[in-house]
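Worked problem 6 (solution included).
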Amino acid sequence: MADIAAGSIVKRPVVSQAAPATNALTHRVRHPRIVGLDVMKSAAMYFVVLIHYVFYTTAYPDGAMMRFVSVAYQYSVPLFFMVNGALLLTRPLNLGKHYRKLGRLVVVTVVWKALYALLFWLQHDDAPVTLKAFISFELGTDEIDGHPSGFFWFLNALIGLHLIVPLLKMAFDALDRRILWSVLWIVFGFAFVRCTLRIFLNFADAAYKTDLSSVLDNVTRFYMFGFYGYVIVYFVAGGLLMEKFMKYRDPETGRFAWPFPRFGMMAAIACLVFCQVLLFVIQYFDSKFLDSGYQLDDSYQLIPGLLGTLLIFALFLMFRPSRRLSRVFTEIGSHTFGMYTTHVLLILVFLHVEERTGLSAALNSINPLLALVVSLVMIAILFALAWCVSWLGSRIPVVKKLFL
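Solution. The predicted structure is:
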């Protein structure tokens, strides 16, 4: 992680000695928001709404075309972690300020969980919210059984990640990054390699009535980073890629040049398409052999998903929207936290509308392509409504604290 001399840690210089890097990094603070990051957050949020729309409603028709589109959710939340890494690892870290922000995140998460638990309790359905379930939910359980609350896993993982950000920052800033790379390779092996291998062994087990995949279960006894340890890879990868791109940023326009001369943008796009196809094939066989739904087990820990997310991150940094469109993405990007915490509430309202209008039956009776287009439009409407709720909530005294 660092060379130690005379009791001090030798850190990586903030500014590179190369002239282009110096210009880019020294002017970075004076530039406006990096629009590409807001574009990523906007796309990630749309994918989040899409997959929860698929999970919690029956209005999204089944079919190969629908599954090919919906499997893009693999890139959603990982992009949020990469954006966090791009922002936190490439800037100076104020430890006191960081932990104050973390404290606010914890409080806000507790309040949002309490509000959703209250909503579920008021529903008085077949899955009552017990006191034990509520306390477990507040203390870190991903969801309350029988209720659409699993999306809180992201906030749980985000809190855990931010607890160790100072350690990751030290390793990232160190002149010698061997410890940082060691951690990344350990997590990559135990999380991404193991989970990708396991899903193929699951197919073999289902086809030949064997139990080969279980041999990988004991491997996790040597893994010390927990179930959400894989987010470290996305977080640090965001920082490493942003650092690379900052060396190729024009100090006047703030735009990036493609920093990989041996791997062009067209090659990156082709690889992204290949990753999407591979994820679709995996999802297809997962549903065929294991009779599962749209979501894959350990979905964010598959190697094609990781590679695809890295490619999307790099390509979106090159996106150069007009000034007006940039303002749109900036507005969306600055409200994604509130959109994330409120979009499921809007989906639940939509669910009641769906049940009363017979929308699901209507969509399943029309042309599949038209049904897909209608579904994507409805998801866009829910996305826009979530932004409206977040924008409005961020302007109401006291309430705005919940929207960070």
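Discussion: Confidence is low (pLDDT under 50) at residues 1-10, 14-31.
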